[in-house]
Amino acid sequence: MDFTGPIIAVVVIAIVARLLLKKYYPHAVLLIAGLVMLVLAWAFQFELPALNRSTGATGLDFFRYIKESFSETNAGVGLMIMAIGGFVAYIDKIGASDALVHIAMKPLRLLRKYPHITAAAVIPIGQVLFVCIPSAAGLGLLLMASVYPILLNIGVSRLSAVSVITACTAFGIGPASAITASAVSISGENSINYFVEHQIPLVIPLSIVVAVCYYFVNRHFDKKDDRGAEEVEKKEKKEVKAPLIYAIIPVLPLVLLIIFSNLFQVLDVPVLLDTTTAMFISLFVALIFELVRTRNIKATMQSLSTFWNGMGNIFKTVVTLIIAADMFAKGLIALEFIEGLVYISQHLGFEAIGIGVVMTIMIFLASMLMGSGNAAFFAFAPLVPDIATKLGVKSTSIILPMNLAASMGRTVSPVAGVLIATAEIAEVTTLQIVKRNIIPLGVALVVMLIYHYI
Question: What local confidence, expressed as pLDDT, does residue 163 receive?
Answer without folding.
Answer: 97
